[in-house]
Amino acid sequence: MAHSAKLVIALLHIFAWSFLDILEISNGTETDIYCLRSIKESLEDPYNYFKSWNFSNNTEGFICEFVGVECWKSDENKVFNIKLKSMGLKGHFPREIKNCTSIEGLDLSGNELTGTIPSDISLLLLVLRLDNNQLTGFIPPEVNQLRSLCTFSVANNLLSGPVPVFSDLTIPAESDAIILGQCTIPAESYANNLGLCGAPLEPCKPSPKKFIVLCKGFVVGWIVAMVKVVVVMFRNTPILLVKKAITKKNNKLMKAGTRWCSTDERSKNMMVIS
Questions:
Q1: Which of 35, 36, 58, 214 would be a feasible disulfide site paired with 100, CB 3.0-4.6 Å?
Q2: Order of strands, sheet of 151-153, starting from the edge strand that comes earlier in the sequence
């Protein structure tokens, strides 16, 4: 009896774990399909490369037949790599890429993407190539959270601001590259973005805007200080004038009194002599 109970419990454990695995695979499959559907809908495809991206097929592994899509297994809808290089695609960076929950590589280089790079890129990426597009703005600092990143390029865009600081990088002396663990990100990965700065590029200079703000702050502070000085001066000026007038009047009275005393004394002396 006890043996039978243990057998039932073991079978229940096996069933539970199997169910969870199936559920996880199902959820991963659904999110990966949604990820690819969102990419197709968000990008303009003038050369019709997405023609093969037909979502009417529901068989397991059907997305693995899409142009530019590689799966972990050919019979499983889990995206491993997306390579959409030099397809003339237009639009903004597809933000729903984060829904490809198992993706490790993304290559959108050589297209006509515009706008900014989003900060919520998949943390699993080993490869991220966005070079030769028309992306603008800053490289989001969150890129440094891509712990597995080994290949990274944003060359030949319109980006500006500081290069992300990776926590586990090393910069060898007199080197034009960043070493991330066993991987190297050379200066060429940031080339031809005139607004970018910081290692492995030239050091960042103080922003002109910050300098202007500092100057404005100094000017405003100086004006406020001068106004206070003027107010204090005008507030005290009447008092000073009154004090000066009183002092002047007292001096006149003292002089007049002195003259009167001198005259009176001379008169007394003359009377005595008489």
A1: 35
A2: 69-71, 79-83, 105-107, 127-129, 151-153
